[in-house]
Amino acid sequence: MQRLILSDLEETADSEAACCLAEVRRAVQACQRCIIITGAGISVSSGIPDFRSPDGLFQQLKQKYPSSVSSGRDLFDATLFHCPDMVGLFYNFMGELRNLVSQATCTPTHEFIKRLDENGKLLRCYTQNIDSLEKRIGLETSFQRTSKECCQTEPSKDSGGSRRRQTTLDKKFTRAVQLHGDLDNVVCTICHTKYPFTQQLAQEFCEGTPPACPRCKEIEAIRDIVGKRSVTAGVLRPDIVLYNEAHPQSELIGSLSEYDLKRRPDLLIVIGTSLKIPGIKRMIKEMSRCVHDSSDRTKRAGAGKAIYINRDEPPRGWDDVFDYYIAGDADQAISMLPIADGTH
């Protein structure tokens, strides 16, 4: 793995660094099927702190709640729902984070990903972020199913056979996969009904009290009228995926990543993530192996590379995964990567 430190380019006429940058630029220009995987680092310049840096969210939470939070990660772990005090802190923080996200603007890195898509070079973006800035820049984040009529079933004595409709996932529709959900919606803990995460709900969250689910309240009122016993009513929580929690859309996401591997990506760019989450680590390594298995023709053109852009060095064991590590600010690094000759 070659290392390119952006400050070296600014301070000295480092020929080795310039050569490395030229190779990275060539890879971006030559690629046809690029996979982007992003973390919190790409949204820092929008005003949203990352998680693990010295001034990131985890450290901020630890300082804000020193008697309750031993690690900032505690407020992103599903086990917090077993502790009433932690639940209050969680809702307060999520309300504040929702207000922060609503004021954020898309960064040059988000714009770069969008331009890759517009130029037909983006195979797909996978993001760990819950700020929905990919959606705001115009990348489709929802899943779409298509329905088609299947062939006739085997006729029986009593029936001449019937036709049925089959629903399948449109695997090219989603341009950015939100691996950890988003703060656009809230979801009921019991009936799973979703509602927009409005400013009013954000204010209720900031007060530290979980809002009741309107649908559950309605069902409870109806049961009371007809004399049925009451049932547990749900509360609303952010539609995000916490640590130690299964993703409700994991099968769909798995289908998309498997499909993308079969489409033979020829460039992998990983930006602004610390490479600590097991599922993300696995995905990156699978994508990297596929990219490195590109054809000789693709490699001669300059593609078939895996690039890591982050302020902090990758942990040990990643030298064979990435061809280049660009150390520095994501937006600054991206500004040096033209998508096509003469364009930025």
Q: What this model shows, in words?
A:
With 344 residues, the chain is of the alpha/beta class. The protein has twelve helices and twelve strands. Strand 7 and strand 8 form a beta hairpin. Helix 4 packs antiparallel against helix 7.
Helices, by number, come to: 12
Q: Strand pairing plus helix content: what structural class? A: alpha/beta
SSE arrangement, N to C: EHHEHHHEHEEEEEHHEHEHHEEH
CA-CA gap between termini? 25 Å
Q: Please tally the β strands and state the result.
A: 12
Summarize the helices and strands and which ones pair or pack:
Elements: E1 2-5, H1 6-11, H2 15-30, E2 34-38, H3 57-64, H4 84-102, H5 108-118, E3 122-127, H6 133-136, E4 145-149, E5 165-169, E6 176-178, E7 181-188, E8 194-196, H7 199-206, H8 214-225, E9 236-240, H9 250-262, E10 267-271, H10 278-292, H11 296-301, E11 305-310, E12 324-327, H12 330-334
Parallel strand pairs: 1-12, 2-3, 2-10, 3-6, 10-11, 11-12
Antiparallel strand pairs: 4-5, 7-8, 7-9
Helix pairs in contact: 4-7
Question: Briefly, what is this?
Answer:
With 344 residues, this protein is α/β, with parallel strands linked by helices. It contains twelve helices and twelve strands.
Question: Which key features would you list for this structure?
Answer:
344 residues, alpha/beta, 17% strand
